[in-house]
Design goal:
5-stranded antiparallel β-sheet; 29 strands; 12% strand; elongated; alpha+beta
Length: 1168
Amino acid sequence: MSQKVTPSMQSLKSLPADYRFDGSPVSDRLEKSSGGSVSSTNSSIPRKVGLRNGVSRTATAAGDTEDSPYSGNGVFVEEQSLINGVDPGTTAMPLPQSDGDERRWSDTSAYARKKILQSWIQLPNGNWELGKILSTSGDESVISLPEGKVIKVISETLVPANPDILDGVDDLMQLSYLNEPSVLYNLNYRYNQDMIYTKAGPVLVAVNPFKEVPLYGNRYIEAYRKRSNESPHVYAIADTAIREMIRDEVNQSIIISGESGAGKTETAKIAMQYLAALGGGSGIEYEILKTNPILEAFGNAKTLRNDNSSRFGKLIEIHFSESGKISGAQVQTFLLEKSRVVQCAEGERSYHIFYQLCAGASPALREKLNLTSAHEYKYLGQSNCYSINGVDDAERFHTVKEALDIVHVSKEDQESVFAMLAAVLWLGNVSFTVIDNENHVEPVADESLSTVAKLIGCNINDLTLTLSKRNMRVRNDTIVQKLTLPQAIDARDALAKSIYSCLFDWLVEQINKSLAVGKRRTGRSISILDIYGFESFDKNSFEQFCINYANERLQQHFNRHLFKLEQEEYIQDGIDWTRVDFEDNQDCLSLFEKKPLGLLSLLDEESTFPNGTDVTLANKLKEHLHSNSCFRGDKGKLFTVVHYAGEVTYETTGFLEKNRDLLHLDSIHLLSSCSCLLPQAFASSMLIQSEKPVAGPLYKAGGADSQRLSVATKFKGQLFQLMQRLGNTTPHFIRCIKPNNVQSPGLYEQGLVLQQLRCCGVLEVVRISRSGFPTRMSHQKFSRRYGFLLVENIADEDPLSVSVAILHQFNILPEMYQVGYTKLFFRTGQIGVLEDTRNRTLHGILRVQSSFRGYQARCHLKELKMGISILQSFIRGEKIRKEFAELLRRHRAAATIQSQVKSKIARQQYKGITDASVSLQSAIRGWLVRRCSGDIGWLKSGGTKTNESGEVLVKASVLSELQRRVLKAEAALREKEEENDILQQRLQQYENRWSEYETKMKSMEEIWQKQMRSLQSSLSIAKKSLAVEDSARNSDASVNASDATDWDSSSNQFRSQTSNGGGSRLQPMSAGLSVIGRLAEEFEQRAQVFGDDVKFLVEVKSGQVEANLNPDRELRRLKQMFETWKKDYGGRLRETKLILSKLGSEESSGSMEKVKRKWWGRRNSTRY
């Protein structure tokens, strides 16, 4: 389907996955013409409709490339060059489209004609510029550039551009023309809109924005968790990893690569944040996130290219429980750049922790460690760079301390860590002085030397001997060798590097202890690899040599996963596959790893020779590797290796020393003799490493045998273990791109980005992925996963038959899949259709199950409610019956009490009414008698006269006054009786709350009783006196009474009786007795009423009687009523006294007058 063309013009011309055309279906497939062109019969123009994420979509866009059955899988055709004036419109780019069971094809000649009007042209400076073709003549074309400049170029140098509708697509596989300028333009377009993530098939490309972008946080995490946001993102990669781990039960890995400054560390932290958010809940995820500040402080440094460059590689393996929650983690580190501790280039810094310690240490810690400012330490001052713009080292130091607390590093251990750091800094200040003519030296006994000895806890003399002398074993003898100045400096720097390296390893060990999984291990994990990217500087040393070797190995892993293994699997499964060539770096890896004539083998061999130097190493490499196509020897110490990312020239200066990385036994013995625990642990660790099996004889005469494995050999072993671990996982690749070298936001350098894209192999990834079958599944797994979707039950058939039946039922086009011997292979997006159908079916099944279970639960709940209701009815019935029985008993008791109270009240009322009736009857009868007998002789005279017998005659006015007073007394009596009833009811309610007034009321009652007795005695005396006088006249009264038996028989008889002298004298005396009797009767009634009221209030106050009233207030009211009655009663007594005095003054009987005076005198002597 393709033909060979000029490499500069080679591209893939498939339309994007979500690009659709409108047109009539044709019955014939496209056929390849003899000229290599492809034609069709019909054509249509694409319709643009709207934008999604800043990218135009067509009217029938499928949206997501995963769910589209044709995403990124158009027909590949070769580009036709503009030669001999051939009309480019004759080239058609058809795209298969499915509508139900039909296949529709559309011609795109109009689109192609419009498309070819814009092309990319490479300027002399190497940048690409988009130009418009004005005309074409022969092999030349006239191009108009955007600034209006018109140039003439060779047509073959033009690279076709994509239409505007594809500007800013989020997946490079969607580009119609996949070429370098189109990829650069698409990334730049998205970068300018802060869309820093772009997919390149299975690879995520992340461009460092060098600023904060609003793409992170809980809102975005929730969106990607619910898959409501499908834009490329680190969150999406992490989400895919955790879902595949749970679904497939296969460990996952996220491999983050890129050169220094591309944002690998931040990308790793973002991925960890998403995994912590989804798998959090146990608290361990917070500890995992807090390992980043610690590792960055101790393992990152400022370089010329990056302010926070990782100078080590790390693999964080996060373990998950069966429920998908984080259960622990493990951190593995690779190749810490120890040389940075003692040596920094101009404008760079050593590790961050040194500057953070100097800036953020507390005064107490500063005094304890004898710390000074950073510029006073030689290790830190040699680069003349002490700070980073926008970074507060003091604040970062406090963050590191908090992180150490969270990962359970004790305060004592933290102080020991800071002491080791201060010891390293003070070691750099240790100076030496020459002591003889042979240039032998010894350390200067100054503040630096004493501070180092104090901080690591050793004897200062032992430290002096270690830095100035070396004990060498020659057979059975020990020879003491004095060190020269270069040797002493090397010994000092080796000790400093070893202390820092061991301290770093110890911290990683403590972190792993804190994050240990233990018994919670389930075997499910996601590994995040953050390792240094490919490096190429003006001067490349041993560190760049190891880093680039690691990147070669990672690139091969990348190639094998995406290219080689994919094509080999196609061949093994018998898939009809057009092989696509790709660059393999196996030759470069063989150059490094081949034995015995590989770079690493020759380096280790030269490191074993006592007289080996950097020059001899370079000569040996050139001698043995000159015929290798990936190696080129240069002058002097230089040699060049052709890496997958480009050629890198190395200088062998320092190679042997750094590869040996030897620490003499004297230094190890010094650390083991220290009183501090950390140096002792460091010495034990180094001694244990020296006992490991030796890969080769690396013992150097006069050197140390503390570390027999070379750095390169150990690193190679770590790298092979890493590759083995990654090989057992499903990898997810993130390629970080640095847009410029000045770390400026918004600046996009095409050349730099293009170089990194070539190193990452992004274009090769897209090219091969689009032309292959990236999704594959075994027959058994496919039938087991989707077999239940079949309409007909063919469960008894073999898995292959079931799989084919599934494909036929869902009308998946034959070119969209391939059936292999053991697996089914699908183009991109095909499995998404089945997954959507499966998810919808499962969702429906779950809905039915949930409905049925809900129905069962509701029935069960209804039965439970019915049983509970019956049980409650029995319980409530029993309770109500008991309450009703109690209420009935109380009701009967209340009825009994009420009957007694009402009977008492009725009796009192009856007695009162009876007494009032009697009093009223007596008063009326008296009035009638007085009216009938009082007119004689009184109305005419208008005064009081005395007859011959001395009887007193009462005037009519006096009788009227007496009658008026009688009526008034009767009305007052009725009112008092009503008040009495009210008071009696109220006082009955106060009987139970009157305890505190009981004593007082008893005393008042005694006083009142005394007053009552005195008053009663006075009344009795008055009655007796009146009775004596009345008995004297009884005989005359009896005669008058006998004559008055019939008042109505004759008026003359009545007048004769009333005119009798005895009757006239009896009338006033009877009136006086009547008034006195009524007063005495009223007094007794009032005494009884007030006594009962007081008794009731006492019972209310004491709580014997329940009543809704205030006893204190009722007592005050009763007292006021008593005072009012007493005042009224006294007034009436005085009036009666005056009347009786007048009557008594006219009587002739001296004895009676004496008795009256005596009574009234006693009455006046009585006071309430």
